[in-house]
Every structure is written in C-alpha cells, then in structure tokens.
Design goal:
Elements: E1 7-15, E2 30-39, E3 44-45, E4 49-54, H1 62-68, H2 72-76, E5 79-80, H3 81-98, E6 104-108, H4 112-124, E7 135-138, H5 139-146, H6 158-164, H7 177-191, E8 202-204, E9 214-215, E10 225-229, H8 237-243, E11 249-258, E12 264-272, H9 275-282, E13 287-289, E14 292-298, H10 301-308, E15 309-310, H11 313-318, E16 325-330, H12 338-345, E17 358-362, E18 368-376, H13 379-386, E19 391-393, E20 396-402, H14 405-416, E21 450-454, H15 462-469, E22 476-485, E23 491-499, H16 502-512, E24 515-517, E25 520-527, H17 529-536, E26 540-542, E27 545-547, H18 574-577, E28 582-584, E29 601-602, H19 607-612, E30 621-622, E31 633-634, H20 641-649, H21 651-657, E32 665-670, H22 678-684, E33 695-699, E34 705-713, H23 716-726, E35 737-740
Parallel strand pairs: 1-6, 4-5, 6-7, 9-15
Antiparallel strand pairs: 1-2, 2-3, 2-4, 7-8, 10-12, 10-14, 11-12, 13-14, 16-18, 16-20, 17-18, 19-20, 21-23, 21-25, 22-23, 22-30, 24-25, 26-27, 28-33, 29-31, 32-34, 32-35, 33-34
Helix pairs in contact: 6-7, 20-21
Length: 742
C-alpha cells in the first residue's frame, strides 16, 4: 500500500498555459483540479470531483482554452487557489472518513503537477500547502515496476498503458476527467489479480533546504548539477531553494559564485539529489525570482566542487551546528574584535554561542581581511542583524547579507589556498655579477616546511622561542631560527623557523598557535621556504601578503656595505621609483635580445635611492644564528626599478620595456574603484586630449587593480589645471585623490 495508506486520491491539475509534459514550464497558474478516491482494500472508487481555480491573471492560451473548454468568464467566477485547496482537504478527509479509512496518498500520472506547478505557485503566493501534497505516488513508475517487460510501450502514456493491459480507452472528452478516469482504471487493474500490486514507491517533497558542507573528495555526478545565472546579489541559499521549490536539492547543494573581488556575481551552482530533479530544474529556465528572470543551464560536478568543496576543519567546526542562519559581514575594521562585533549586533540579535558563533576570515599569514561570518539560531535574530546593514562600526560602514555554508567554504578557500607570495612574471634582468648566497640562507622552495611566529614580545630572544616550542625544538633544522628585525635593528615581533619536514611544521602550527609567551599570545602559521626567504631577503608585509621590498633592493647588511657597488650616473624618475604596484603598460612587452633569460637575478644596492627618496620603507634583518647578507635576489616585474636601471644603461630597451611615459607631466590618481578601466579615466578627463597610451593603471603583485593610476598630460600647466578642476568631482560616485608628480 502507498506508505501504509488506506486510500489513493487520484489527482490531476492543469494550468492556463502549457500542459502535459510541459506543465509548469511557462510559470502559468493552475486553473483546474480534478480528483477521485480509490479504496485500496475494497477496490472501490468514490465520486469524481472537478474544481475550476481563479488565477491572479485572468487569461488563457488558445490551446489551453481548447483543451479544457474553459473561458475567462469561467475563471472569473471561480474560487482562488487557497480556497480550492481548502475545499479539497475538507472533501477528501470527509470522504475517507465515510469509507472507514484513516489516511490517503495522492496518485498522479507525472510529478509535474506537484513539483512544477503546485509547489512553485504556492511558494510565490506564500500559501501553506496541506501535508498531503508533500508525498505522492507516480502511476507511470508503479506501472513500470509492476510490468517491467512493458518497456516497449511508446512514451508510456495513459492510453498506451491501458492498451498494454487490455483495457479500453476512456471515452470522457473533458480534460482532467479523462486523465483521472484512466488512472483509476489502471490503478484498479494493477491492484487486482494477477498483479496484486502494492503502491510503495512514495516520492516526497522536502519541506526546507538543508544547509551543509561539501568535501572536495566527495564524488558529484555531473548529471545532477545546474548553473543559475542572473540572481539578485542579496540571494541566499534559502532564496534559491525557494526558486526551485518542489525539487529536492542535495544537502549543502547551493553554492553561490564569487568574483575576483570576493563579491557575488549573480550566479550559483545547484546540486540536486538525482538527474530527474536536475532535468525538471532545467525546465525553469527564465522563470522569475521577484522581478528578475533566472537563466538555468547544465553544469558539471567539477565546477560544483571547485566552488563548494573544501577541506578546512575550521569551517567544518564552524558549520557543525545544525539549522543555523548564516550572515556575512563585510568591511570590518582590521582591529575589530569578537566583542566589537557582538556589541555592534546588539542584544536583539544574539549570536549562537557568543564568540564561538563568529568566524573571522584571514589571509594565510593571519592578517584580517575585513570579512566575517556569524551564526544565528533563528530567522528572527538574523533579520534583526540585517537591519544594521551599512551602519557604522569604528569608522567604517558594515555590509551584512545572508550567506550560505558553501559561501563560507568558498571565501575561506579563496584566501587560505592562495600562496603568501604571488608568482611574479618573468622579465628582463640586469647583467650584473652573481654573488654567492649568504651563509645558511635557505634555498627557495614551495615546500611548506617552515612556520612563521607573529606577535612575539619585543624582548623575546631565540631562547624564548625554543622554550615556547617545547618538545618541537628537536625538529628544528640547524641554524633554522630567523628573528626578523626592523630597519633600526629592533625586533619586529616576527620570526621564521625551518622545520625538518612539512609534517613537523604543520604539527607546530596546530599545537602552538595562540600559545602564550610572556603574557602575549603568539600566532603560528605554516609557510614555505620560498615565502620565508623573501622576507629574510628584505620583503615587506602588505594587504596582498608578502612582497619584495620597495625599490626592489633586498639588502640585508647595514648601509655601509653599499660602497662596494658602483652608482649609476643618473637618478631615476619619481615615476620609475613608485614601487607598491606593478605598472601595467597598455602596449605589449618586448623582450630585450641581450637580456639573460633567468628567472632570478641579483641587483646591487644603490645608496642614493635611500638618500633621495621619502618612502615608508622597513628593511628586515635576520639575527644569529643566520649571518646578515650583503645582497639578495628576486624576480623583476615590468616597470620595476631594475627595469628602469636597465633602461638607463640601454635606452632602447628601456623605452620598450618600462611602459612608462617618456614626456609630459605625470599625475597620480588614488582611490579609484577596483573595476576601473582606461576608458573610464579617459572619459573622466574628457576635453584634455588624452590618448589611451597616456594612462597606466597600477596593479598589485596579485594581479588585481590597486586603485591607483598614472596619467601623462602634454604639459605641466595642463596637468595642474586638470588636478585643480577634477579633484572636486567624484569619479563614478567615488571621491579620488590626485597628485602632480612632476
């Protein structure tokens, strides 16, 4: 019997548009419901019921009007869907009770009427469907189970199935009544001898979407995944599940896609429990979510795992609490503490388990990104928190919006999987003598066999670090402790330690992270030898992670050692010495023929660069047991000082490779939107007769726009006038700062 029910309610529905196999594909409303009861014990049938439903939009397609025989006037006189469903519940319950039965299950000829028509429409109209509409049996699947040798039946229509079992076709002409009568006859035949079939294949409709995490090693069938495009950026996983109401999404099967800046791009990957539900989802192509239509396409399991898959134990632990509403906070001050966030949210939106319900997103070296995720135990608390969208915390306004478990995993993957140092592109280098490596300098390697200690007390020495690491000191390589000092030779609070293997460094990071040293907790992160080497050779810390030092001069010895190297005959321009970002030249880079094609090169330090530049520069010096070095190495990107020095020695090569304007007055713009293009800047300076090659947008070492650009004007007078006139004007709604560099 159907889920231990006493009766079946054979059920049929039609919409004001497409019906049959395309039912629900055009979002048209239900206009007709027909049903009849079958007693599974006595093999008897009840009265045939037919109800017309009044839709919100009183219109019919010509084909629907012809098939159903209904007119707009018929619809106008009918009851709305909620009233008809109430009548259905009362009528069926009363009839079942009169038969002496206690329960019933719906029986349909395809899942479309339940999954594609009834549930989506009820969701849009905020109707609460009776419980009976969350389970049903499909007569076609039951027929196939009862008669497995009937696979040759064409398209498995009701008429062909009746013909296969030797029953005459139903003669009713009215749409709905004919389908219900056919299903009733087929059902009675399957219940009788010799089949004695039991209706046990009950399908269910999920009440709500279950959030969760997905492991990267979990197999995902590509036949179960779709891509939804055109979503409102505020959409959550629950909103997407509501769009696909009636279909069963796998646990944690909604993954919102993010762009390069970590913001939602209006797309999501959705994973269903099987290919049948995926195919039904594809039929909702260009259905509406609010006023927006959503495009639905096929996707692959690999794409889903790339977005939603993760291995972070921190995320798994954070999301281990069931049935929590997740809110994402963006734009937090970097100094914000858990208590600051809890105070900002207020007592009317308590966070689950207080600080345990907060997850701050950090870079691989532990620096905050300004993002955080918050757990709330119910929708009410989450809604109270969302009311604080764009309110001020410290001196920054905070963005709050609903999030998903997959987005938590994706954001953590984005930040934590990226290396601390971005790979720099190969470029021309200076043909200067190569010096021997300094004593005990580790060879550059991507093996993560080092740890970084951050937040050390300034009075801490190597002995303190060895005591701090305890039993793990036996796994430190000889001469493997590197204290990082600032330019004045004072402790910076950082240290790097080489371990014997990546496993040992991982254990240290796990066991010693946030362990206390002299009343201060110390952060411990696993890193690679390459990352450690860059810092020890003079690298600096910035928002993009670790990077080579300003001026590309990683000198580790005191300035007195500079006298050993020759000084170029002329000074570099201020534009060439502007270091933080890479200069993205609008013309393609040309390789100089005589430049050696090495990935790494040595550069001599130049004393005048420090004496003539007003830069915020902090050099890092290693202390014993590693001896200071007089020279370092790094890759030289296009537009770097090294390229500029090469240009002085070889003017033709410099003109081709530096990408910097050679004539006119230079203006630096700061605070640009990160999606700014050359055309935007040319439009902003319309009337100043700028050419595209006069604009250089600056990028950081991660290849992302730094929010700055260099613009070359024909003369200093024109540049000054442009700065004076445009400084007060917003750049696409954002205030920018302009400085004349000449």
């Amino acid at each position: 019997m159907a889920s231990h029910s006493d009766t079946l309610v054979v059920f049929f529905g039609a919409t004001a548009g497409a019906n049959g196999g395309k039912l629900g594909s055009d979002e048209r409303e239900i206009i007709l419901l027909v049903w009849q009861i079958v007693d599974l014990h006595e093999k008897k049938v009840g009265k045939l019921h037919r109800c017309v439903v009044k839709p919100d939009a009183l219109e019919l397609t010509d084909q629907c009007s012809e098939d159903t025989g209904l007119t707009v006037d018929d619809l106008a006189e009918a009851e709305p869907l909620d009233k008809v469903l109430q009548q259905f519940q009362q009528s069926v319950s009363s009839e079942v009770k009169c038969l002496g039965r206690s329960s019933f299950t719906l029986c349909v000829d395809s899942p479309h009427v339940i999954r594609q028509a009834l549930h989506p429409e009820a969701s849009k109209k905020n109707l609460v469907l009776p419980e009976c509409f969350f389970s049903f049996v499909d007569v076609k699947k039951e027929f196939h189970k009862c008669c497995p040798d009937a696979s040759s039946v064409p398209k498995r229509t009701l008429a062909s199935m009746l013909e296969y079992v030797g029953l005459p076709a139903v003669s009713e002409e009215s749409m709905g009544e004919m389908e219900v009568s056919s299903m009733v006859q087929l059902t009675l035949h399957l219940l009788a001898e010799p089949h004695n079939h039991k209706f046990t294949c009950v399908e269910t409709v999920k009440y709500k979407f279950d959030s969760g995490t997905c492991n990267k090693m979990e197999p995902v069938d590509s036949e179960t995944v779709i891509r939804a495009r055109g979503l409102p950026w505020q959409s959550s996983d629950q909103d997407i599940a509501r769009f696909f109401k009636g279909l069963s999404i796998a646990k944690g099967g909604v993954a919102l896609c993010l762009n390069a800046q970590g913001r939602r791009n209006g797309e999501a990957l959705v994973r269903f429990i099987n290919s049948e539900h995926r195919d039904l989802a594809l039929e909702r192509h260009k259905h509406h979510m609010g006023s927006r239509y959503i495009e639905v396409y096929k996707a692959t399991g690999e794409e889903f795992l790339k977005i939603a898959g993760g291995t972070s134990n921190e995320v798994a632990q954070f999301l281990s609490k069931e049935n929590q509403v997740i809110i994402r906070m963006r734009g937090l001050p970097f100094t914000a503490t858990p208590q600051d966030v809890l105070s900002f949210l207020g007592p009317e939106s308590p966070v689950t388990d207080d600080a345990e319900g907060l997850l701050f997103v950090k870079y691989p070296d532990g620096r905050p990104t300004g993002d955080a995720f918050v757990l709330f135990s119910c929708e009410e608390y989450a809604q109270n928190a969302l009311k604080r969208h764009k309110q001020i915390l410290g001196k920054r306004y905070i963005e709050l919006f609903r999030s998903t478990a997959a987005e938590v995993q994706q954001v953590l993957n984005r930040y934590m999987s990226a290396p601390l140092i971005s790979t720099l592109p190969p470029s021309p280098i200076m043909p200067v003598p190569v010096l021997a490596s300094p004593p005990y300098l580790p060879a550059a390697s991507s093996s993560r066999d080092c740890v970084r200690l951050r937040g050390l007390p300034y009075t801490a020495g190597i002995e303190d670090i060895l005591e701090f690491m305890g039993e793990h000191t036996v796994d430190i390589k000889p001469h493997g402790v590197h204290m990082v000092l600032n330019q004045q030779g004072r402790p910076s609070g950082d240290a790097f330690i080489q371990m014997k293997s990546p496993d040992k460094s991982f254990m240290v990071a796990q066991k010693c992270h946030k362990k206390t040293m002299k009343d201060r907790y110390v952060e411990v992160f696993q890193c690679s030898t390459e990352e450690m080497s860059i810092v020890l050779m003079g690298g600096t810390l910035n928002r993009s992670g670790l990077s080579p030092p300003p001026c590309k001069l990683p000198c580790l010895s005191p300035p007195t050692a500079y006298a050993a190297f020759p000084t170029p005959p002329s000074m570099l321009s201020e534009a060439a010495l502007y270091q933080p970002p890479l200069l993205a030249a609008p013309r393609p880079h040309q390789t100089v023929a005589h430049s050696p094609a090495h990935a790494l090169a040595y550069y001599p330090p130049q004393p005048h660069m420090y004496m003539n530049m007003n830069m915020n520069y902090t050099a890092y010096y290693p202390s014993p047991p590693v001896s200071p070095s007089t020279v370092g190495y790094f890759a030289a990107p296009p537009g770097s000082v090294a390229a500029a020095v090469a240009a002085q020695s070889h003017p033709a090569a410099g003109a081709a490779s530096s990408g910097l304007p050679q004539h006119g007055a230079l203006v630096r713009m700061q605070g640009l939107p990160y999606n700014t293009g050359v055309k935007d800047i040319l439009s902003f300076f319309q009337g100043y007769q700028l050419q595209p090659d006069a604009v250089l947008i600056l990028y950081n070492f991660s290849g992302q726009c730094s929010g700055e650009a260099l613009i070359t004007f024909h003369s200093e007078e024109i540049a000054r006038r442009a700065v004076a006139e445009r400084s007060t004007q917003p750049f696409y709604g954002q205030q920018v700062h302009m400085v004349l560099c000449n």
